[in-house]
Amino acid sequence: MQGPAHLAVEGDAEKSRRLAKNLVGNALKYTSRGGVHVTWGEEKETWWLMVKDTGPGMLSGPGTPLVTGLQEATASAKESDDRAAARQGEASQVLPTPRDSISAEALSPHQPGEGIGLSIVKRLCELLDASIEIASSAETGTTFRVVFPLAIGSRQSSAVLA
Question: Has domain 7-105+112-150 been given CATH number 3.30.565.10?
């Protein structure tokens, strides 16, 4: 784990923890060698959480609507962020897409998942006004990056995440 000791944000602490728990739980479940790295931080008007594993990549569901949708959303976010960053003379912070992104050729010894955990993560992102990015490869594993606004809304309770 790596990130600031204290990160003050406004939002729903319970939903944020559940989202993190689902991502970390999936990473641990599918990583038999290597490890899981969880990082968080703040940039501009957002904060982010990243969960990276060295598992087999998301090979259990290539082409499924959820995986395809997450990949398309990440590509769209990267394209938009690349343009904005170029105008400001900065580098994009969106996850790069690996060259061998989610390949059906390399099969995992793990049982395929049902996608329920990722469906929950996707819905929590919608409820928290967060965006989710994914990069996955058989060689490097899977990385999820969730980007949240610093202030989600006045209906939410304040929380300090550490």
Answer: yes
